[in-house]
User: What shape does this take?
Amino acid sequence: MNFAGGSMNCEICGKKIRPPGYRIVVEGAEVRVCASCKKYGSEISIAKQAEVKRIVIKKKKPQTKVEFKEELVENFNLIIRAEREKRGWSQEQLAKKIQEKESLIKKIENAEITPDPKVVEKIEKLFGIKLRETVQEVKISRSSQAEVTLGDVVVVRKKG
Ligand SMILES: [Zn+2]
Assistant: This one.
């Protein structure tokens, strides 16, 4: 193609285009097209980004990751119920004390939902108890997250 002449043709529709036109990738091949044909492919810059991402995933090596996180104790709902009943409060009274809805307390005590950290914190403060424990998680991930099976995740619980 002769670019010196300042004129070129769209490689899809053949229409004359003004340089530089648009460089797109159609089915793996790079073509130079007019403005109305660029929709038929992905523009070069975007295609390059996608390529880089794919390579990163392929190169990912098996790795061991240790994470520390605060996790709700398993019987948090029973603890909350026991603490509330010890004080002779109704669910409504407890809800008012932490400025939440009675329905939320009901769901928490029935273990229908996992309360968010903000709510947990309020309950911990109110009762002077701890509902969370520090959990150490060792994750061994292979080529991708999707391949991590239950057997690969080891949970070590620490007291206190
Ligand atoms: Zn065209």
About this structure: The pocket of zinc ion is lined by residues 10, 12-13, 15, 33-34, 36-37 (CB under 6 Å). The first strand starts at residue 8 and ends at 9. The beta strands are 8-9, 16-17, 22-26, 29-33, 42-43, 63-72, 132-141, 153-157.
